[in-house]
Amino acid sequence: MSKTIIISNRLPVKITQQNNEYELQVSEGGLATGLGSIYKEGDNIWIGWCGLDVPKEDESRIINELEKENLAPVFLTEDEIKLYYEGFSNETLWPVFHYMSTYAQYDESYWESYKQVNEKFRDAVIALAQPGDIIWIHDYQLLLLPQLIREKLPDTTIGFFQHIPFPSFELFRLIPWRAELLNGMLGADLIGFHTYDDVRHFTSSATRVLPVQTNANTIHQDDRNITIDAFPMGIDAKKFDALSKTEEVRLINDNYNEILGDTKIILSIDRLDYSKGIVQRLLAFEKVLIEHPEYIGKISLHMIVVPSRDTIPQYRDLRDDIDKLVGNINSRFRTSAWHPIHYFYRSFPITELSALYNRANICLVTPMRDGMNLVSKEYVASKTNEPGVLILSEMAGASKELIEAIIINPNNLAEMSNAIVQALEMGKEEQQTRMLSLRQTVLKFDINHWVKIFMDQLKEVKELEKSRYAR
Ligand code: GDG
């Protein structure tokens, strides 16, 4: 019997250590939920780093604990985390793939570690995989893995999905190891991205860097066909819809209403990241207060920034910039009874997020670049009673689907601040019409739909490839 193996840099689990005991908490994130329908079944398994530096003598305990959940760990050393993860993944690939190439480091030691860790993942897969298995690899930390597995198990079915953008060739070509990265990805049978633009950029890079032929969305290399396609990822929309109607969320919102009264809430939620356009968003909000003093005391920006990658200098600098800007705006405009910005640098329980999504009059999602952006979809799914307005950057993959949002260019501060004013003044009826269409999209094309269409196409392209050989 063949099985399915999911592989990602991180396992969908949080492990904490208390009094020499390890505790597992399986993630409730969208990807974990969607892939839950796969990896929790039968002999299927999810392989990834467990997120913890585990002493050698404790490894077997962790392995046993994870096995009960159909999970298998890859253990990474402190050096590997520094060079492969923080280094090559987040200081080389992340900035280039998000069009911030001036932030990129091209460091030979990062690259060496990236290769070694991808080989480590390959060994973990090979230890568990059989030739007929289906393997689904996730994201930019593992670009070399498809080919590494293909070399050992030539007939295996391999899918690869990249969650971040694929940049245009002019950006991608900057990476010294561009050919190796493309060859690594092309070990897959099916390569998926969030949008057709990513598909186009990938195909164009492959044809310019490598001696491959393309035909529509198929790349031909070494007598193999590789299909490249767009699979816009959805969220667990039913969960967000249901959560917003629970008593717990209603009580949190009653509390907000008591504190905030009629103040209109503009919501912003991201991980700390320069790709998310947090500074530009603050400037656009400040512009509204400067140009429309009539809103002073009547609107407030609730900004949640979840700590992330703060060992990397650019992230620490970004945090300082945000702190300063929030301080300046608050001190300039606040009154004794009102704060323009409520800024939180921490993460919140999902019930708090749900209440904020449900209550917010506007959700401001303005990344400079984003593969998809799930926050925009979670806002829509949580809008179960009063409508609201989504302002969305055209640089987010989600803007290709959520076309009833107000779509803006995040580099255009005037356009962004005008969009905020347009949203504040938008009548209920228009809000309702737009939100209804947005909700239809988000509820229909959810995470389960995404998992199904990717898996179906993966099986289909493999069958086609097999029949080509049989002919
Ligand atoms: C990458 C790509 C792509 C945020 N704050 C809290 C919290 N969150 C959750 C949100 C949402 C998730 O984090 C963020 O997802 P995004 O899609 O917005 O962004 P990335 O983390 O950069 O994800 C992105 C995604 O992969 C999937 O392919 O869309 O483009 O960059 O789900 O709800 N969750 C909790 N507390 C918080 O305070 N519990």
UniProtKB/TrEMBL annotation:
Record-annotated membrane-spanning stretches: none
Keyword check for Plastid: no
Keyword NADP (UniProt): no
Keywords noted in UniProt: Glycosyltransferase, Transferase
Catalytic activity: D-glucose 6-phosphate + UDP-alpha-D-glucose = alpha,alpha-trehalose 6-phosphate + UDP + H(+)
EC number: 2.4.1.15
Pathways involved: Glycan biosynthesis; trehalose biosynthesis
Homology family: Belongs to the glycosyltransferase 20 family.
Known partners and oligomeric status: Homotetramer.
Protein name: Alpha,alpha-trehalose-phosphate synthase
Source organism phylogeny: Bacteria, Pseudomonadati, Bacteroidota, Sphingobacteriia, Sphingobacteriales
Full-length numbering of the shown residues: 1 to 471 of 723
